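Input record, target 12 of the design panel.
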């Protein structure tokens, strides 16, 4: 849509309705999704029995990669900062690091328990954080280069911090709980990877400093029998959103003036249902919560100030995942049936921006032209005669000039006009608004090669081009058979003609 046609005063930054939906060609249910940093690609993890990963081009709405390795349901997908690597985790306990340009597996790990969540370090693609689904297991910090697995036990980290402070200062620190006996249920990096936030089964949040690997703060967000299910951070790193088992979403401040202070709570006062997923908007002004219900596809949008902005009602089926586009007012939600719904905002076209006298008609009107509206006027002839006189004067005045100099300058102008402008289609220009000096260039699929569309071979039935490959194979076999038959017929004719000649 042309940006000039959008009225900025009526433009909405909140999605309102479903514009279109995405469905797997083989009708395999989707379970989770994740955008890359600019929102050009959408990676979707599918449910069992085939835990494949589909990478959609969000602009063309086409599948550009299909990856196969997992046998269970894919629970988590994480993008690297440059968009060239993908980290996927599944219910079968497998963790896979993918190289998207070649669709190859760079690293794989098999664990005994299902993996609930896994994500890259925001500034280091060689590190990742793993959260297991089994209760009582500690989150794991994994290094892909050294294959080192570091379990992060909150209780031991708290005790080590208390011992260190008592030995150095002789005072027991009050920022942590000395009688802490909780178990981690969720963990996540903040936006810059400087800290790791742990949520436990006691309604507490523990903050781990990543450089020193010590717990420097603990604070309570809910009652002692409440489990923290999810932690999300805003893009400006000013807020943190915590989803817990008491059916409440809590907005916590990360600013230095009121650090780790509860700002407000969000909940559904009518249905009193649990929340499946939560996230922030791209402009950090809204909070999104997806309801956890078997037959209700409901998405609530609140402002950071606390008011309910929109209640999006989808089809009569449950919600599996919800996420906001990184740059645009678009929400993507996944239903229990595996359909991906794309919610967009309503834009009203303003045609009067081209001409102030423009009027929009409610009904079609028949236009009646004037009699002399399209007739040739005498002024056109007068203008033509005046132009001819001017040309004659110019030609007479140029008699005394050097004709070679005029030809040379005209030739230079022709050469300049004939030069073709070079357009680079293989590389992407850096956008200063969304990048900085410390970031790498973002990967984009400039051209799709059939060899790298997926990591399985053409003769594998899981390959998206398997049917095409089989048809081409059958056509080639039929063509070879027909050519062989023609050759046999021609040889028979030649033999018969030779025998007749001999007779």
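The sequence produced for target 12 reads:
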């Amino acid at each position: 849509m042309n940006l000039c046609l959008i009225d900025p005063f009526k433009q909405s930054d909140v999605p309102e309705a479903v514009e279109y939906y995405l469905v797997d060609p083989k009708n395999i249910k989707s379970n989770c999704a994740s955008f890359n940093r600019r929102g050009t690609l959408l990676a979707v993890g599918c449910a069992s029995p085939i835990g494949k990963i589909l990478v959609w081009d969000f602009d063309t709405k086409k599948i550009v990669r299909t990856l196969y390795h997992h046998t269970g349901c894919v629970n988590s997908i994480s993008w690297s900062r440059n968009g060239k690597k993908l980290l996927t985790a599944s219910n079968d306990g497998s963790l896979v690091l993918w190289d998207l340009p070649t669709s190859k597996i760079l690293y794989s790990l098999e664990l005994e328990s299902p993996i609930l969540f896994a994500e890259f370090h925001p500034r280091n693609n060689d590190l990742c954080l793993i959260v297991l689904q089994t209760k009582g297991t500690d989150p794991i910090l994994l290094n892909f280069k050294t294959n080192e697995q570091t379990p992060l036990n909150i209780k031991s980290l708290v005790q080590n911090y208390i011992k260190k402070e008592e030995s150095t200062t002789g005072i027991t620190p009050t920022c942590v709980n000395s009688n802490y006996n909780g178990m981690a249920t969720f963990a996540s990096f903040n936006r810059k990877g400087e800290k790791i936030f742990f949520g436990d089964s006691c309604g507490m949040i523990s903050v781990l400093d990543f450089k020193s690997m010590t717990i420097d703060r603990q604070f309570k967000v809910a009652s002692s029998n409440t489990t923290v299910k999810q932690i999300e951070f805003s893009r400006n790193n000013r807020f943190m959103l915590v989803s817990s088992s008491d059916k409440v979403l809590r907005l916590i401040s990360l600013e230095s003036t009121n650090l780790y202070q509860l700002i407000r709570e969000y909940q559904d006062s009518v249905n009193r249902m649990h929340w499946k997923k939560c996230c922030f908007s791209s402009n950090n002004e809204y909070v999104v919560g997806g309801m956890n219900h078997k037959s209700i596809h409901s998405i609530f949008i609140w402002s950071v100030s606390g008011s309910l902005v929109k209640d999006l009602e989808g089809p009569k089926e449950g919600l599996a995942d919800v996420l906001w586009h990184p740059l645009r007012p678009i929400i993507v939600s996944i239903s229990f049936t595996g359909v991906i719904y794309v919610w967009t905002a309503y834009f009203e076209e303003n045609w009067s921006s081209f001409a102030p006298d423009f009027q929009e008609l409610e009904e079609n009107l028949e236009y009646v032209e004037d009699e002399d509206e399209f007739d040739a006027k005498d002024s056109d002839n007068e203008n033509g005669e005046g132009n001819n006189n001017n040309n004659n004067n110019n030609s007479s005045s140029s008699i005394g000039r050097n004709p070679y100099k005029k030809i040379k300058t005209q030739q230079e102008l022709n050469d300049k006009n004939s030069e073709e402008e070079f357009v680079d289609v293989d590389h992407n220009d850096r956008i200063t608004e969304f990048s900085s000096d410390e970031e790498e260039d973002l990967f984009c699929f400039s051209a799709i090669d059939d060899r790298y569309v997926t990591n399985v071979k053409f003769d594998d039935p899981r390959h998206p081009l398997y049917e095409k490959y089989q048809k081409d194979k059958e056509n080639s076999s039929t063509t070879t058979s027909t050519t062989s038959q023609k050759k046999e017929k021609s040889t028979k004719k030649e033999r018969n003609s030779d025998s007749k000649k001999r007779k």
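The first helix runs from residue 154 to 169.
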